[in-house]
Automatic annotation (TrEMBL):
Pfam families: SAM_Ribosomal_mS41. Belongs to the mitochondrion-specific ribosomal protein mS41 family. Residues 15-71 form the Small ribosomal subunit protein mS41 SAM domain. Keywords: Mitochondrion. This is Small ribosomal subunit protein mS41. InterPro entries: Ribosomal_mS41, SAM_Ribosomal_mS41. It is found in: Mitochondrion. The lineage of its organism: Eukaryota, Fungi, Fungi incertae sedis, Zoopagomycota, Kickxellomycotina.
């Protein structure tokens, strides 16, 4: 695999550093991947069934491993602050707004 050979170049000397860099909870999964080949050859069903990785982390890891194969070094992307409310809070806000509109 092209991406695997490229992996040891630069600041990414291990899968743990790679997962810590992409963030979003993936740093907790460093013990699940043995080496670069294991990280880059794992597909969605393998990550789900054998490694027990959740959907959001699976999609995030697969996206970044693909970008890394294409030559894009991973970087941290913070989550949006816009949608930080819980579902219950959003529903309560909607109810309040509807109550105001009806008056």
């Amino acid at each position: 695999m092209e991406g695997v050979e490229r992996c040891c170049i630069g600041k990414f000397d291990s899968p743990a550093v790679f997962l810590e860099t992409i963030g979003r909870g993936c740093e907790k999964l460093t013990d699940k991947f043995k080496d670069w080949n294991h990280l880059f050859q794992a597909d969605g069903p393998t990550m789900k069934d054998e490694l027990g990785i959740g959907l959001k982390q699976r999609k995030w890891i697969l996206m970044w491993t693909n970008k890394f194969r294409l030559g894009i070094d991973p970087y941290f992307i913070p989550t949006s602050k816009k949608h930080t409310m819980s579902r219950v809070q959003r529903l309560a806000r909607i109810k309040r707004r509807r109550a105001k509109q009806q008056k």
